[in-house]
Amino acid sequence: MTLMLKPGTAWSDAYEQCVLRAPEAFHDDRVLNRWDGRWQRDGRPAPGVTPVDGTAVAGPPRLDRGTAFRAVRASVDEHRLWRHVPLAERKARVTAALDALRAHRDLLVLLLVWEIGKPWKLAAADVDRCVEGAHWYVGEIDRMIAGRAPLAGPVSNIASWNYPMSVLMHAMLVQVLAGNAVIAKTPTDGGLSCLTLACALAAREGLPVTLVSGSGAELSPALVRGRDLGCVSFVGGRDAGGQVAASLAGLGHRHILEQEGLNCWGVWEYGDWEKLAGQIRKSFDYAKQRCTAYPRFVVQRSLFHDFLAAYLPAVRSVRFGHPLAVEAPDDPPPDLDFGPLIAGAKVKELADQVDEAIAKGGIPLHVGSVTEGRFLPGQDTSAYLAPVAILTPPPSSPLFHAEPFGPVDTVVLVDTEAELLAAMNAGNGALVATISCDEEETARRLAEQVRAFKVGVNAPRSRGDREELFGGLGASWRGAFVGGELLVRAVTRGPEGERLPGNFPDYTLLPGPA
């Protein structure tokens, strides 16, 4: 049956609603920045394109360096006032902001679908995790803040595009709750309108939120090296994270730098293939465009035939396509594993890496086709990539040692436990890992030697919510760990000489079993 765009969900419909519901932040022709306590029609709007079908969308209004410094100075002034606001009032204002986010939930979800290509179900989970997670902190903040004080300056947030609500906005709300003014740079590649609407709703409740757009080169001197900042929080890739870390050197800023890692799934002396097949299918959620995705399977050679028998049907069952393409007007959005990647350029980059890996000896186990997806007639599909799996990628390939951030799996075969561990630790630290092994004692022993912050046994690990801690080992993380009480500790001051759990240049302090 020919598919159609679900009525009422066009980008023009979504943006019209933004202008109607938050006219202070959205004009008919552009989105605004927010600093010095008001929305400002400044910066040069860059063109924006949705990865969903190539439609033009609102682009970020990029500020210059001088304006970025003025925005930071204004946030410092807001911070000096906000840190003295009583906790009860902070809780009341954050709660009111959360109520507003709930009231605009479906619009926030629709914006995420268009701006970063998430299927409806996953976009809704992103919004809901933000709201419910921050609400949990409102109920727990009294005990977490006891004996602690806000930082000396605002928290500067620079985050990737893939989780603008459940990671970035969630962190900002907790930082505000803890007594800090907050600054956020809108992700360059997507999420501008969703984040702007969320910040507009928060600002209406009196929360000290600054939201600016611009290139990293222009804004980094202010958002990273600004001398009056209290903390710099970064979520993104290792290259950009390394630049942020270098910029922070010698400044003494509190920092939280969450970087990518090659998260591995080891299969050793294992036999529950039906369970693993379901886990493999689930691992393709959002095209593996998340920091806790599993793009590498390290498999005991003697089990490879059983692994392949489970893997191939699972990867062939993955559903992808246009997140709003339906068969009939009243149909709900389709239940997809993923939509597009963030941009057509990313698809080309990965396709070139796959071709090169195969040309140099990697064995293609599965190469899907975009024609297998669900699309509107004649739509632009340049940002879509079907699942791919390569056995034994050559060491010269980026797919051998780096996270692809797309639906590309690599499989490495090993014969000994030592080889298994070496292969799982090839990325110099990871955020998560998993060992599938029938003997729990063996699995636990192996898990202890994997350099990942969280290691699952016969189950995947994720970033987690509420009480669950999060961090990384090796090059996957620098600075204070977060999650649960640690997130509040990371953005507040404790006793003199306090050593925060984290991965710092001069020490690594783990908070206990993760």
From TrEMBL:
Sample GO molecular function, one term: oxidoreductase activity, acting on the aldehyde or oxo group of donors, NAD or NADP as acceptor
Key words, A-Z: Oxidoreductase
Listed InterPro entries: Ald_DH/histidinol_DH, Ald_DH_C, Ald_DH_N, Aldehyde_DH_dom
Domain Aldehyde dehydrogenase per the UniProt entry, residue ranges: 46-485
The keyword Oxidoreductase is assigned to this record: yes
Coiled coil spans: none
Tagged with keyword Oxidoreductase: yes
SUPFAM superfamilies: ALDH-like
Name of the protein: Aldehyde dehydrogenase
